[in-house]
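REQUEST FORM: STRUCTURE PREDICTION
Request ID: SP-0412
Submitted by: Lab K.M.
Chain count: 1
Length (residues): 152
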Amino acid sequence: METTKTEINKEFPIKLVKELDKYIVGNDQYKIVLSMAIRDQIFTNKTKSILVMGPTGSGKSYMIEVLEKCKTCPKVNYTIMTEAVDDLTEAGVQGKELSDIFKRYKQKCIKENNDSFRGLIFIDEVDKLINPSYVSSGGSSEVYNRNAPIQH
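STATUS: Completed
RESULT:
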């Protein structure tokens, strides 16, 4: 019996969650949302941004690492890449720029023969981009956000 695209579309997130279950205990809601978002992007061309929040050590980054290394996941033309923002810098300062993330993603897609350039870029520690800075003026301390322009 031949598998139709509709059947693959329905089975894909189920298979992906089962694969994640082999390596990750709990985080069921995250597994489902992530699997459905990947499915939607692959099969319906819908792109979604997902903000994942949780305490340190809750498995946010690890789940993406598992997906990146997954050898038995349902294989499709899809690239997954993790990028930490720790060493991103402002324009003119030595270090990585935001555009470098997309250059590396394109290179990884080419290496993986992903002609569609579809995939997932997981930007880890994004909270550090909007972390407030503390300054002291006279006898009082003030809080300001050094990255206010990016919060539009």
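NOTES: Residues 1-72 form one domain.
Reviewed by: T.R.
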